[in-house]
């Protein structure tokens, strides 16, 4: 069976899935992921998008949902960090102004410590991020193992195809030789038949000439 030149291999599908999932986790657009994969595979972004929506996406629905959750957690953690930093800066500036007013001391004072609830919330966020990163790492390892297995499988199929093609060549050559032998045999049989017919004709003429002599 002839394979289309633009057909997608399993390795290309895995690369497309890994890139799109990574871009989803990082809050980037899928279009940017299609463009990145297109540059690597020398395909258009439209072709990558069509392949993703038509074939690859439905095989990674669970991973997509996980990536979206990780994106939300990542966004929430960044927002919390910005909020904490803003609050800490405000407290620092307020404390610095009050100290300078009361004591005339330097403005380079340590920031106010975070509250216990803030520390607990931050650590919980870090724990969730660590768990999600571990899940992502395991998924990546699984995809890498799957890619390696398919590569080995493709190599075995390529070797088998090579052997079959060599065998087909041998069979074709044997078939052509057999056809030539049969054609030669038919030619020889035809020539032999012509010789036999001629001999029979001569024998018949000889018999006809012998009969009058016998009666005389």
Fraction in beta strands: under 5%
Biggest sheet character = none
Whole-number mean pLDDT: 80
Structural class estimated from helices and strands:
mainly alpha
The domain count comes to 1
What are the segments in which pLDDT stays under 50 over at least 5 consecutive residues? 105-111
Report the principal-axis shape: rod-shaped
Number of strands: 0
Helix count, per DSSP? 5
Describe the structure in your own words.
The protein is mainly alpha-helical and 216 residues long. It has one domain (10-103, 112-177). The chain contains five helices and no strands.
Give the key terms:
216 residues; 5 helices; mainly alpha
Please render the helix and strand layout as text:
Layout: H1 10-25, H2 30-41, H3 45-56, H4 61-103, H5 116-215
What's this entry about, in short?
Residues 53-87, 123-174 form a coiled coil. This protein has one domain (10-103, 112-177).
């Amino acid at each position: 069976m002839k394979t289309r030149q633009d057909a997608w291999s399993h390795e290309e599908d895995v690369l497309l899935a890994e890139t799109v999932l990574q871009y989803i986790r990082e809050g980037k657009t899928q279009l940017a992921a299609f463009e990145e994969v297109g540059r690597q595979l020398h395909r258009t972004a439209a072709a990558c998008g069509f392949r993703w929506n038509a074939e690859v996406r439905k095989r990674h629905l669970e991973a997509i949902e996980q990536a979206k959750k990780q994106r939300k957690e990542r966004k929430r953690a960044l927002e919390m960090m910005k909020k904490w930093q803003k609050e800490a800066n405000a407290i620092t500036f307020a404390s610095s102004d009050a100290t300078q007013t009361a004591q005339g001391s330097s403005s380079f004072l340590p920031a106010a410590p975070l509250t216990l609830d803030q520390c607990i919330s931050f650590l919980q966020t870090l724990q969730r991020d660590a768990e999600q990163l571990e899940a992502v790492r395991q998924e990546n390892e699984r995809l890498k193992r799957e890619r390696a297995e398919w590569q080995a499988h493709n190599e075995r199929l390529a070797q088998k195809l090579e052997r079959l093609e060599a065998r087909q060549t041998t069979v074709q050559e044997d078939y052509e030789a057999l056809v030539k032998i049969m054609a030669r045999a038919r030619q020889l049989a035809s020539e032999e038949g012509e010789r036999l017919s001629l001999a029979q004709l001569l024998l018949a003429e000889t018999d006809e000439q012998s009969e009058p002599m016998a009666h005389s």
